[in-house]
Structure prediction request, 154 residues.
Amino acid sequence: MARLDSIPLSERKMMIELDCSGFEGRNPFVATKPLNERRVSLVSTAALNLRDDAVYQRGATDYRVIPGNVDPGDVVMSHVSVNFDRTGFQQDLNVCFPIERLHELARDNVIGSVAGFHFTVSGAAHPNDLADSARAMARTMKADGVDTVLLVPI
Prediction:
């Protein structure tokens, strides 16, 4: 697990200064239902894409759609940085995009179902710049009947 004191000062400052106002409430803003009835989608900041998709460019604020039935071998990481260790991803996609684990949870009836669509963005983008992408992803999830999102920050 990353610890704040081990993150480079410039990145630590950016994280501390993020405006998270509006998230102080302790009460859920949607009705809950049992986990074994929920349809789950993934959103990862690992800048993943399908082998044939356009790669993420520096400063990208767009997103990529990963189908729920994707072959893990067809998912690649286009995030490039000397400060980013890709070995975990190279050994197991589920480290940053746990799609196979979700399918296992659905087979075991822990969750209701795996969404038809999952999403990735570039974690290098500032969250405020991802608002349009977030709205578009939310529309797709809503149309797919998703009621639970697993956020995978990388």
